[in-house]
Amino acid sequence: MKFLAAAGLVGACLATSPLLAADLFESAPPPMDSPAQASELGTNWYIRGDIGYGRTSEATVVPNAGLFPSIGNQPIGDAFNPVPATRGNFQSTTNAMFSAGVGYRINDWLRVEGSWTFSNGPGYGTQQTVYCPEVANAVSNQQYTNPVTNPVTGQTTYTQTAVPVGYQYDFTSCNGNLHVTQYNNTGLAMAYADLGHWGMINPYIGVGVGMNVNTISGKLNFNQTDTGANYTGPQVVGAAPGQWVVGAGTDAFGFPAYRPLPRPAPTSGAPQPVGPANWSRTISQTKYSIAASAAAGVGFQISQSATLDIGYHVTTLDLFAGFKNLQQSVMAGVRYNLN
Q1: Quick check: helix, strand or coil at residue 265?
Q2: In terms of CB atoms within 10 Å, which end of the chain has fewer, N or C?
Q3: Alpha carbon distance 171, 266 (integer Å)
């Protein structure tokens, strides 16, 4: 009631003072821009998120020669440094994909966008059974020196000395399990042309260029088939030079003889040490390449700020490799205007 009374009093004063009322209205400043006009620039920015399904063609991952050792060799590389991956023939795989982006609408017909897409490429998995040394027994050859001939019998005797020559191994079997994955992180700068508004429907086309980061990552583990435990090297019995030996029959006096086990030169690192040895390996390789993409799709206006976006994308993940590293996908998501 007090508010109404005050309002009536003000109105009465204005009515009884026409000159004052006219002066008040004539000297009023022009109205400020409306909130909608002030925030118009902000509505040009948008964010989006998509999920989809696509087909990717890339070089397959193949096991490196020497990852699964033969008798007398350790796996190539060492447990402290990743082994580079070997790439084979091109193969296609289908997987889910995820994408996100930030864009700016220049006008009703043109918008630009920065996007990131994650996808998987063809990986590799295999298992092989190999022989792994379980016990390393130090062995010796006999050395004969200081020959002495008996003048009566004519027999010659020698000073006999045992000379350690290496380790003879008792082998067990191990299962080597190799699992390698391949994935892509693709960043693109895209330009889209919107082809008009047909009610709630807005078709578009787009092109872009950027970079693809292809990563290959994997692990190789060996487990003993008899216990299932991770293989950590042989149990050592005795002391000898750190080399593997095999039986070489007997010497002239009937004692067992041994010779070093032939092996090719190791690819990296020292020959297989005697004692605990980590045969597990990691596989890692990263490749950077120029990517290019083309897209076509349609947007459905579902609210003042949100647009449902369904599009088809074709991307070469390595522009200079032609169309071998090709990715095709159908993506669906939402574009949201930042009001």
Answers
A1: coil
A2: N
A3: 20
Q: What is the mean pLDDT of residues 231-260?
A: 86
Pairwise CA distance, residues 271 & 260, whole Å: 13
Specify the pLDDT at position 72. Answer: 59
| Percent of the chain predicted with pLDDT > 90 | 49
Tokens 């966008």 — which residue? 113
Are the beta carbons of 244 and 169 closer than 8 angstroms?
yes
**Length of the chain as a residue count:** 339
Residue 231: name the closest of 271, 168, 177, 166 by CA: 177
The per-residue pLDDT for 275 is: 64
- In this structure, what are the phi and psi dihedrals at residue 62, rounded to the nearest 5 degrees? -120, 150
* Cβ partners under 8 Å of residue 66, min gap 6: 73, 75, 76, 267
Residue 200 main-chain phi, psi, to 5 deg:
-90, 0
